[in-house]
From TrEMBL:
Keywords: Acetylation, Adaptive immunity, Apoptosis, Cell membrane, Complement pathway, Cytoplasm, DNA damage, Immunity, Innate immunity, Membrane, Mitochondrion, mRNA processing, mRNA splicing, Nucleus, Phosphoprotein, Secreted, Transcription, Transcription regulation, Transit peptide. The keyword Hydrolase does not apply. InterPro entries: MAM33 (IPR003428), MAM33_sf (IPR036561). It holds the Pfam family MAM33. GO terms for molecular function: complement component C1q complex binding; kininogen binding; transcription corepressor activity. This is Complement component 1 Q subcomponent-binding protein, mitochondrial. It comes from Casuarius casuarius (Southern cassowary). It is found in: Cell membrane; Cytoplasm; Mitochondrion matrix; Nucleus, Nucleolus. One of its GO terms (biological process) is mRNA processing. It comes from the Eukaryota. Its main location: membrane. The keyword Nucleus applies. GO terms for cellular component: cell surface; extracellular region; mitochondrial matrix; nucleolus; plasma membrane.
């Protein structure tokens, strides 16, 4: 059984490498520095007196495709049926001003139904879910700090928050490029996982 499994993995790895779009990770325009640790990626950008970091994790970042249910019942369809898998991770933007001890933290995500909204003009491809202040430099965030949930937020305030992000380079273009980067990273990690799995299965 293990031998068949290893052979299957070998083929799978070949296939995945064939469709791999990026041999190296795509860059994000606007002078962001990328730092990757396993499945977590961090983008850092410094502008006049501020440091902006965007962190995301590719785990669980691929939305389930509606076709999956059908596939489990019937045989898998030929290759052309497979939709492009895209990774749309939640991401956290932290804005740190040099002269304050506080960090403004904005928790952003890609709404799952945004794909169907192309008719709307200038619709944002990501939304801000929560906003809070956290003490700068502390890795553990305090649950006791007030967190503003944007569900019930005055839209004018929400618009200002979106503009605030856009002024710091976190806009639709950035969000698009982040999907590219995340998808490439996810694919890279997936291939690595298959390779590790293969070595593990073959190990006697």
């Amino acid at each position: 059984g293990d031998k068949a499994f290893a052979e299957f993995l070998t083929d799978e790895i070949k296939e995945e490498k064939k469709i791999q779009k990026h041999k190296s990770l795509p860059k994000i325009s606007g002078g962001w520095e990328l730092d990757v640790h396993g499945t977590e990626a961090k983008l850092v950008r410094k502008i006049a007196g501020e440091k902006i970091t965007v962190t995301f994790n590719i785990n669980n970042s691929i939305p389930p495709s509606p076709e999956e249910e059908e596939e489990t019942q019937g045989e898998q369809k030929p290759d052309e049926q497979e939709p492009d898998i895209t990774s749309t991770p939640n991401f956290v933007v932290e804005v740190i001003k040099d002269d304050t001890k506080q960090t403004l933290v904005l928790d952003c995500h890609y709404p799952e139904d945004e794909v169907g909204q192309e008719g709307e003009d200038e619709s944002d491809i990501f939304t801000i879910r929560e906003v809070s202040f956290q003490p700068t430099g502390e890795s553990d965030w305090k649950e006791t700090n007030y967190t503003l949930n944007t569900d019930s937020l005055d839209w004018a305030l929400y618009d200002h928050l979106m503009d605030f992000l856009a002024d710091r380079g976190v806009d639709n273009t950035f969000a698009d490029e982040l999907i590219e980067l995340s998808t490439a990273l996810e694919h890279q990690e997936y291939i690595k996982f298959l390779e590790d799995l293969k070595s593990f299965v073959k190990c006697q």
